[in-house]
């Protein structure tokens, strides 16, 4: 088995595309209309263009349990997923300067440094820098 795609529920696909590409630095991979103004919309890491894709999934707008789950995670401050970074302090500074909101600044948790940001689409995302 291989991981090729992970889904992240988003409230607005266009807003999510802008955030994930313009702020986080991902690159659009696929953008395929699938009906009802929805798209199979994926982004990939600029550093790993052949790596796993992140599907910006509009499920919260179409399936109430998905929206309830997303809202519950957000209210509890629990990240929906995490992305690894090489230098969390540099990414925190760069993203903060771009207006990205963090609910947790870079924090040492033993074997890693973590930070949590708001993706503006209904999710907390955790950034992780593994210690060497």
TrEMBL record:
<dbReference type="InterPro" id="IPR037523">
    <property type="entry name" value="VOC_core"/>
</dbReference>
<dbReference type="Pfam" id="PF00903">
    <property type="entry name" value="Glyoxalase"/>
</dbReference>
<feature type="domain" description="VOC">
    <location>
        <begin position="2"/>
        <end position="130"/>
    </location>
</feature>
<dbReference type="InterPro" id="IPR029068">
    <property type="entry name" value="Glyas_Bleomycin-R_OHBP_Dase"/>
</dbReference>
<dbReference type="InterPro" id="IPR004360">
    <property type="entry name" value="Glyas_Fos-R_dOase_dom"/>
</dbReference>
<protein>
    <submittedName>
        <fullName>VOC family protein</fullName>
    </submittedName>
</protein>
């Amino acid at each position: 088995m291989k991981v090729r795609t992970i889904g992240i529920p988003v409230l607005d696909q266009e807003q999510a595309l802008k955030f994930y590409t313009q702020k986080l630095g991902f690159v659009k991979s696929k953008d395929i209309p699938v009906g009802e103004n929805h798209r199979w919309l994926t982004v990939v890491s600029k550093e790993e263009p052949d790596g796993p894709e992140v599907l910006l999934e509009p499920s919260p707008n179409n399936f109430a349990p998905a929206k309830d789950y997303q809202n519950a995670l957000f209210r509890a401050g629990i990240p929906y997923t995490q992305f690894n970074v090489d230098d969390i302090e540099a990414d925190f500074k760069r993203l903060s300067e771009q207006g990205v909101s963090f609910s947790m600044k870079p924090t040492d948790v033993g074997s890693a440094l973590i930070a949590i940001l708001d993706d503006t689409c209904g999710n907390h995302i955790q950034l992780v820098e593994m210690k060497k």
